[in-house]
Amino acid sequence: MKRTAIILLAVVVGLSIQAAEGARCGTFSVSRSSQVVFAQGNLQYNAAQDTWRFAGQQYEYIGQGNENIAAGYDGWIDLFGWGTGNNPTLATLSDADYKTFSDWGANAVSNGGNTAGLWRTLSKDEWVYLLQTRAKASSLFGMGSIDGVNGIILLPDNWQAPECISFAPSTTKGLQDLGIHFDNEGKDNFSHNTYTMEQWALMESAGAVFLPAAGGRFGEATTYLVGENGHYWTSTAYDSYFSHLMYFDSEFLFPQAWSGCYRGFSVRLVTTATDTGLEDTTDSNDRMNSQKTLRDGQLLILRDGKTYNITGQEVK
Question: Which letter, b or e, does each residue of 245-284 get, where b requires 16 or more Cβ atoms within 10 Å of its Cβ?
């Protein structure tokens, strides 16, 4: 494989290639001095195997299977009580059982480097910065769906739209920033951007992140609003009984919502953005002359009359 081809791929996508296994390629500012990359999918756990993993795709979630949560359950769950990185099957209805936060990212994730401590959970302030404070924040997220799966789309800091793929920030579709939250009187958030699997592959290759509306869990036996609402825990407690989460549905987006710690919600981990160490030897004209396309479901890069696959190899 030619080194120049690898450099080309990094430049065309417009992002740094991340070394961490299980990480997406887009970089996102979560404070004035910190950037992160998101995990490839929501966090999942199998109690019988005592194994953590990331969902294979960003839009995947378990849903009603979370009602099987138990210490010996040989299946996967992805809705967790707040701070249960050290006790993921805890499902009592008492907030007092969740007073201490144990970060899920402290665990080894089997398809995320398989080493403890590589990942972490965003704080409440980091979610606020990402959605409301970073440069061009209002234009770098939008609600939508992928093949009928509802969720929120997050775009990296240096977003460049793929060829022939459109994206509409929800703030241009009726979602208004009211300070502590966003509100859409039309209640049609998930219609703002709709993608097929093939279209999403191009969005994802440019660094877009998707968090599905995976619903929530109340106690052991009840899941609710699966496919309709998204609840993503932060690492930040609100008080002795509640903790912060990022919440969205067809009408609202709350970067700093709060809820009882005993409820089971989704977790999407992040890791610190790292540089590839590759020297970018192309100029701006080279970047403008490169395009991405799909052929038989495979993402390809077109440049200077040649075609490359995502590993940087030239193809015919």
Answer: bbbbbbebbbbbbbbbbbbbbbbbbbbebeeeeeeeebee
